[in-house]
Structures are given as C-alpha cells and as structure tokens.
C-alpha cells in the first residue's frame, strides 16, 4: 500500500483529510491507483508517482502507508473480495469500494472531493448516499463471511 499525502509546513492533517491518492500492490501485477474526484472514484493501473514540492502550498509526499493511518493496517494481508459503492441518486457513478481482506473490511470512498476511510462494511453516516453492489465473487454484500 502506497499513498500520496499533502503536507504543509512539515505537518499534515488527519488520515482521510491529507490523503490524495493511494495504490494497492499485488504480486505479479501493476499497482492499482485509487483517485477521487468529487463523488467519482477512478481506478487505474499505474505505478506511484514521485513526491513533489508545491512551493508555498506545501508538498505531496508519496511512500508506504504508515501507522496509525488505516491504510497501514492492510499490507501483508490478502484481499479476498471487493464490491463497488454506487452513488444512490446516480447509479452509474462509482464513488468507492468495499474491500474484504483476510482480517477486516475496508471502505474507501470519495464524497464531495473528500476521502471517506472506514474499517468495517457499514457506513451509517452515508446511508442513502451510497449503495453497495455485490461482491465480485457473486455474493451479496449483506452476506457475512
């Protein structure tokens, strides 16, 4: 797991607030970049870019996810399944993913240009805004296990 984060004056805001992009790495395949734009989640195969300076606006630092951030809990664990999260009012718009790892579920969604990162499969604060599709394995996201 690699992430790009915004830093300013040597500090960054919280976990989801400073996150710009992140990449999932899988053995034997290209990295998968997740990028949010408004309520739209874009996934593309691309390698992480280099860190860069933005002058008076700070810098973007790119590197491995670090504790205590939520994404730092995922490296070394197997991804078992995934489901897309759709904007309820616009069912053609993918706003996030629900990732099932061997030790937990992770929600990564972009809502109004802000990342939402949560452990677990439920997002009560987004009920009515996001709808989970089926797991890629074909199971319903309402099923457990």
Verbal overview:
- The protein has about 140 residues and is an all-beta fold.
- It has one helix and eleven strands.
- The strands form two sheets. Strands 4-3-2-1-6-5 form a six-stranded antiparallel beta sheet. It has a five-stranded antiparallel beta sheet with strand order 10-9-8-7-11.
- A hairpin with a 2-residue loop joins strand 3 (about 30-35) and strand 4 (about 40-45).
- It starts with a strand and ends in a 13-residue tail after the last strand.
Give the tags:
single chain, 145 residues, mainly beta, six-stranded antiparallel beta sheet, five-stranded antiparallel beta sheet, 1 helix, 48% strand, globular
The biggest beta sheet is recorded as: 6 strands, antiparallel
Biggest sheet: strands side by side, in what order? 4-3-2-1-6-5
Query: Cα-atom Rg, whole angstroms?
Result: 15 Å
- Calculate the terminal CA-CA distance, rounded to whole Å: 24 Å
Number of DSSP E strands = 11
Strand content: over 45%
What string gives the helices and strands in order? EHEEEEEEEEEE
User: Could you report the average pLDDT, rounded to the nearest whole number?
Assistant: 91
The secondary-structure class comes to mainly beta
Spans of 5+ residues with little confidence (pLDDT < 50)?
none
Helix content: under 10%
The 3D shape can be described as globular
Q: How large is the count of helical segments?
A: 1
């Amino acid at each position: 797991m690699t992430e790009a984060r915004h830093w300013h004056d040597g500090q960054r805001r919280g976990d989801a607030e400073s996150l710009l992009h992140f990449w999932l790495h899988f053995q034997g395949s290209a990295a998968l970049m997740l990028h949010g734009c408004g309520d739209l989640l874009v996934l593309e195969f691309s390698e992480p870019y280099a860190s860069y300076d933005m002058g008076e606006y700070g810098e973007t630092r790119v590197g491995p996810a670090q504790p205590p951030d939520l994404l730092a809990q995922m490296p070394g664990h197997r991804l078992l399944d995934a489901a897309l999260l759709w904007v309820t009012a616009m069912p053609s718009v993918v706003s996030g993913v629900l990732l099932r790892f061997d030790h937990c579920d992770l929600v990564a969604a972009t809502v109004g240009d802000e990342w939402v990162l949560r452990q677990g499969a439920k997002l009560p604060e987004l009920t009515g805004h996001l709808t989970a599709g089926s797991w890629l394995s074909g199971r319903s996201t309402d099923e457990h296990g």
